[in-house]
Amino acid sequence: MDQSDLPHTNWRISERARKLTSSAIREILKVTERPEVISFAGGLPSPATFPAERMREASDRVLRDTPAAALQYSATEGYMPLREWIAARYSKDGVAIRASQVLVTTGSQQALDLLGKVLIDPASPVLVETPTYLGALQSFSMYEAQYVQVPTDENGLIPEGLTPALTQGVRLLYAQPNFQNPTGRRLPLERRRALAEFARTSPFPVIEDDPYGALDYAGAPLPTLLSMAPDHIVHCGSFSKVLAPGLRLGYIIAPEELHFKLVQAKQATDLHTPSITQRIVHEVVKDGFLDEHVPTIRALYRDQCAAMLSALERHMPAGVKWNRPEGGMFVWVSLPHAVNTMKLLEAAVAENVAFVPGGPFYANDPDHSTLRLSFVTVPPARIDEGVARLATLIRERL
Predict the structure, then answer these.
(1) How many CA atoms lie within 13 A of 105 on its CB side?
(2) By C-alpha distance, which of 97, 129, 50, 384 is closest to 231?
(3) What is the mean pLDDT of each successive set of 10 residues along the chain, which is 398 residues long?
(4) In sequence order, which ranges of the chain are alpha helices (DSSP H)?
(5) Spatial distance between the Cα atoms of 355 and 32, rounded to a whole number of angstroms
(6) In angstroms, what CA-CA distances link 353 with 228, 346, 349, 370?
(7) How many Cα neighbours within 13 Å face the side chain of 180?
(8) Cα torsion for 386, 390, 393, 398, to the nearest 10°?
(9) Cβ atoms < 10 Å from Cβ of 330
(10) DSSP 8-state symbol, 229
């Protein structure tokens, strides 16, 4: 059978669909549904952080006070009071963000898809970090991007590496400055300033994807790129990590000219993000709830991260290296090059422990001796047990 055919039919699928691949993380998550598996794989927020009662109360008020509007079609741009709240939250230190720059999306993953749809043509060069967020690679690959890896180190993207030769013909630069997925690294202040300065004169947009910025364990966040160059940065945010991912509520803050094209693309995609979800979230956040709630998330994740780092120090053999994140949800581990983490995963799952191999996070030239550990949904005792099992398997392969 021709690989462009669908099984059991004579139907043809598009060339684009034929090239699609499944997320390595999603495939691993199928295994981790078994309760006996200690899973460090999924980047899932802890359910302990979900404000279920607050959401229930907000839902009751929305359906009591504005049921028709909440259950009706609404504007593609999003619910205006929520857009105004988002704009006000980012308007600080002399920077004024306008509601007209805010587009509410059905999760931040849709934001990436819309940006790819509007900015990328087949074979367009796209700059990404090394490694980078797998979901961004999946979104941009739908539009046949040609990836160019930006030089990075343990502190993240190196702005000096953005040379004229590297940026020739580029359509966008995608970056996660805060507690990046998968590495957990945070871009230092001086590099943020340099990247913002680059964006001011760049002929293409710098995309600042920031789902983890609020999860700084010390509660002392660094300024966003958006705050440094508000007319030259496209900022993507999300309520998934600070409220709940099941809401599927994200947003893009972009200059009005690009915002208009993104709205057109969203109209063709899903008309608008669900009205009821937007109204419920606005009802939850409008009176300052996040300022009370987010510190409890930080405290929980800080303790979980400390448990993970302690377990790594106790159990891992010599030659294994890892970072010490200051926030977020991930620890990035580098093994001796003799260890292939794709093969290691098979053995780990047999021992009821799971992680995400690092290879799929590289746009080009994958490093198969790396892996990502997520610690936020596993209790400390289970973290220690899972790391101990994983360390034994690594030691056997050295």
Answers:
(1) 29
(2) 97
(3) 62 83 66 84 93 98 98 98 98 92 97 98 97 96 96 96 96 98 97 97 97 94 96 97 97 97 97 98 97 97 97 98 97 96 93 95 96 96 97 95
(4) 15-18, 24-32, 52-65, 67-70, 80-90, 108-119, 134-141, 164-167, 189-201, 225-228, 256-270, 275-285, 289-315, 341-350, 380-396
(5) 9
(6) 42, 10, 5, 16
(7) 28
(8) -150
(9) 25
(10) S
Contact 313, 322 (CB under 8 A): no
From CA 119, how far away is CA 140, in angstroms rounded? 10
Closest to 184 in 3D by CA, of 49, 40, 340, 33: 40
Four-residue CA torsion sign, 251, 252, 257, 258: negative
Q: How long, in residues, is the chain?
A: 398
Under DSSP, is residue 397 helix (H, G, I), strand (E, B) or coil?
A: coil
pTM here? 0.94
Q: Between the CA of residue 42 and those of 81, 113, 356, 378, what are the distances in Å?
A: 33, 21, 8, 11
Residue 82's CB is within 10 A of a number of other CB atoms, namely 25
- At residue 296, the pLDDT reads 97
The position carrying tokens 């980012």 is 90
pLDDT at 4: 55
**What is the longest distance spanned by two Cα atoms in the chain?**
64
**CA angle, corner 358, sides to 361 and 306, nearest 5?**
110
In this structure, which long-range contacts are made by residues 118-121, counting pairs with CB atoms below 8 Å and at least 24 apart in sequence? Answer: 118/258, 118/261, 118/262, 118/265, 119/171, 119/172, 119/204, 119/205, 120/144, 120/145, 120/171, 120/172, 121/171
For residue 390, which phi and psi values (nearest 5 degrees)?
A: -65, -40
Rounded to whole angstroms, the Cα distance separating 171 from 119 reads 6
Point out which residues pair with 157 in neighbouring strands. 152
> What's the helix, strand, coil split of the chain in %, to 5?
45, 15, 40
Q: Give the pLDDT of residue 286.
A: 97
Q: Which of 257, 341, 329 is nearest to 298 (CA)?
A: 329
